[in-house]
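Morning!

As promised:
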Amino acid sequence: MLDRYPVALALSAFALAIAGRRLFYLYSMVRAGKPAPGRLSHWRRRAEVELAEVGGQKRLLRWRLSGLAHAFTFWGFTILLLTIIEAYGDTFQPTFHIPGIGTNPIVGFIEDFFIVAVLVALIVFSVIRLVYDPKRIGRSSRFYGSHTGAAWVTLALIAGVMITLLMYRAAQTRVPGDFPYSHWAFASWGVGSLFGPVSVATARAIETVFIDVNIAVIVGFLVFVVYSKHLHIFMAPINVAFSRQPRALGALDKTPDMDVENLDADTVFGAGKIGDLTWKQLLDLVTCTECGRCQSQCPAWNTGKPLSPKLVIMDLRDEMFRTHKKKSLGSDTTAPASTSTEATGGDSAKAKSAVKAPLEERHLVPEVIDPDVLWSCTTCGACVEQCPVDIEHVDAIVDMRRYEVLIESRFPSEAGLMLRNIENRGDPWGLGAAKRLEWTEALDFDIPVVDDRMPEEVEYLFWVGCAGALDERARKTTQSIARLLHQAGVTFALLGPKESCTGDPARRLGNEYLFQMQAMQNVETLSATGTKKVIASCPHCFNSLGKEYPALGGDFEVIHHSQLLGRLVADGRLRPDRFDAKVTYHDPCYLGRHSRVYDPPRSVIESVPGVQSIEMHRCRERGFCCGAGGARMWLEERIGKRVNLERMDEALGTGADVVSTACPYCLIMLDDAVKERQRDEEVSVMDIAQVLERSMAPARLGAASPASPQTTLDDSAGSGAEMVPETGSGAPPGGPAPEQPA
Ligand code: SF4
Ligand code: SF4
């Protein structure tokens, strides 16, 4: 059909030229980023993730309705690539079919099924967008701040592709020999029957019009996609392929070399300008779909703060486009582009030519990202966990914090006290090493304190952590854990005054230098004692010791107390008796999302006869932060509702008698919140170790086991509500700690 192909081919060539130019522009922009080590290894694992997350739409399907709609659209687009081949073939030959499979009735059925499925999915997307229209419901919509107009254009274009495809196939059914499929292609034949009696010439004319329009809409969509957020159609599989493995949670991505010998005048720590981001971080920016899943889970956004992980990504993306445009046009002739030139590594001549042009980059903070946005983050990881295209928000936020702290010396004033305390006294409260063994005074058995080497007969080093050793409420948990371990016959020792802060709060705040000082000192101490196995009760210590210290020479097997207690119960070495209570469990972010430890704490609680376990709505992967992570425990919370109150309100809504957790930070934050709500008379905040011990106390009181500590019920398992802090946490949520004398 000579009247079809000129239009189709001309349009296609024009669109491909525009799209190709745009894709090359995007490529050169991403290549201008700094190196991102480790993204080109573990290809087997990357292939598995690609299959699961892109092919299987695993993350999207966590949200059932929109996930299913997206999955059908994705699979539809994949399958319907066949129909694009058929459309181009039909422009040359009306009876064209794909050799081998082009007349198979099953292929015809599948194509029609997905045309219909995509149309249904579009209706679902439209309803979701109307129900969650940000113009109507404001910031509670996950689409708040997204480009909603572009989303409607996208839906309209996809509908256009499907409708024109269906129409030309329907017209083909009216011309004997043109349509290659039997009646299994139900939708095509069904719509074709609606045409009524038409002549072959008329049917061919309709077919020609709709084939050309179909190709025009497809290539128009292609151009629109590469200029809009729907770029993710191409970028998502690439971004997922280069994502941090096994996930962008737990340890931070980078451990910069802080050795002064290796620093020079050009060394930049963190990200102060867009050119300081790695190519993977820039790829993240062009991949964001603006779906707002991250925003909907963010504890800062959900409590009225200005931080939205989606808007952070979008703002950085706008800055990237703005600066790259400047570079490409060479509109600013005031500064050399040395940083970006280095970043290309000389691999791309085109990228080089782009970055040789002058720079005009703004400071990310405060010119692109407001300081209130930056410091609101608790590094809880909910955004990373939810993002369907594997964007790594936490690393980008901490990189910006690093620049602010290490290069600009700008951070919330109250954080200075915490940093000084860690540096001078070895703990965030500044209470000092001498107090680290005070919690053992309430025990009626001795625990070895390692002076030189770990005793041969001792299996574990119990890393108590600053809160566990120094905060009165957290000390009760530490005592419970110690008694339970002792009762189960687990051998363990303490570092006592030799233990020092792991540096986690300093690192999350951006003070990488202090973190590395603390880490190297602790690695040296642990290595000198010959420690191999560590029990950590604080998930932040658990994360640092186990996942971050290896980058600085640490090599220890680290187990969280919930894992060990779960094992001891399963092995019958601890036998819960009875505790009649409704218990809800709050997932600590650094134990749950960051470390994937969801079941062991629950198994401990559920092992206790009499306990009725109730889940909060936001639990496990979707657990809601307590507000303490990311060093927020030591920062004022001046904007919006306090995160710990939001979480406690949810916990109280379950009707639980006990809000349990497995982190001293969470315990302190939740205990403060239940008191603030004046519900501490009826609701207790307890660590899972305290729940377990509470159930065992009556049995132990009557037991004559030599391993049993001779403690009273009240001593052994006091709830958070019964505990009166002596020193306090030193940092009540919303208030800084008093500085301790040096
Ligand atoms: S890490 Fe948590 S607080 Fe920070 S942006 Fe992500 S969801 Fe929000
Ligand atoms: S960062 Fe991820 S979750 Fe957030 S809007 Fe973008 S694509 Fe969606």
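Residues 331-358, 699-742 have pLDDT under 50 and may be disordered.

Hope this helps with the figure draft.
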